[in-house]
Amino acid sequence: MLLTGWLWCLAGGVLAGTLAGMLGIGGGLIIVPLLIYLLPILGVDPQLVVQMAVATSLATIVMTTLSSARSHLRHGQVSFFWVRRLIPGLMVGAVFGAWLATQLKPQWLQRIFAIVLMALSIRMLIPQRSGEPLTDVSKRLMGLISAGMGTLSALVGIGGGSLTVPLLQRLHVPIRQAIAVSSVGSLSIGLSAAIAFIVLGQQLENNSGLFGYVHFEAWLAISISSVLFAPIGASLAQKIPVKHLQRFFAAFLVIIAIKLVIG
Q1: In degrees to the nearest 10, what's the CA dihedral of 48, 54, 60, 61?
Q2: pLDDT digits 0-9 by tens, 8-59
Q3: CA distance linking residue 60 with residue 189, whole number of Å
Q4: Are 91 and 192 in contact, with CB atoms under 8 Å apart?
Q5: DSSP assignment, residue 202?
Q6: Which member of 95, 147, 193, 228 has the lowest number of beta carbons within 10 Å of its beta carbon?
């Protein structure tokens, strides 16, 4: 890979890792557009650029969110009650979303997703009712919702924090705990989808390695810097006031939505 390509990937990993630790997201908003720009320069077939950008983004999310999840676990913010209710559905949905991404043109789904994110960002700015977390929600309902979130996340190469955090906030889960659980969810989505993309990519012509739709060199460069900076983001999440964190996350959702509309 060209030196400039390595530098761009390292810089993207720094930003993605910081955001992953601070907001519980995987950094796909940064990585996918970056790879869509870089992959053609690196000689990737134009017909495979989008799928490979999404797959490689999800593979980097595995490394980034593994680091941030460990940091949140050390801070004691990971609620295993919510982890058990969300992770199975997220993983199943991620595999299905990876398969869809290799079969469909995702533009129309991106635009629907953008509308959903806009609605979620507005909801985040509306004051939440105080009270204990709503732990009596049906496990089946949570499974269906999380499967849908996993599918959408894998389709566009985003770890899922942009959906998981607002869902947990709606259930009165404290914002810092929601971000911590989301980091575990993003790890599950990234791992499941990346494996699916690797397996599905074995059918590609001129597949030179064992990584299918995942571009190994880009994955390595982004992962190195994102893993180093994810703990920094997790530490920031413990220090920033809750109201500021909510507003920052809402603004981040708007940015995601705009990127999806114009992308």
Answers
A1: -170
A2: 888 888 888 887 777 766 677 778 888 888 888 888 888 888 889 899 999 9
A3: 11
A4: yes
A5: G
A6: 228
Per-residue model confidence as pLDDT tens digits over 219-256: 999 989 988 887 888 788 777 776 777 677 778 778 87
**Is the CB of residue 201 less than 8 Å from the CB of residue 211?**
yes
Residue 209 in this model has a pLDDT that exceeds 50:
no
Angle between helices 80-103 and 139-156 (to 10 degrees): 40
Separation between Cα atoms, residue 27 and residue 35, nearest integer Å = 12
Which tokens sit at 200? 């599905």
Q: What are phi and psi of 162, to 5 degrees?
A: -65, -20
| Tokens 């490394």, located at residue | 63
Q: What percent of the chain has pLDDT over 90?
A: 19
Identity (one letter) of the amino acid at 168? L
Q: Which amino acid is at 138?
A: S
DSSP-derived 3-state class of residue 94: helix
Tokens 């999310």 belong to 61
- Tell how far CA 236 is from the center of its chain: 19
Using CA atoms, how far residue 10 sits from 3, 28, 36, 68, in Å, is: 11, 14, 15, 17
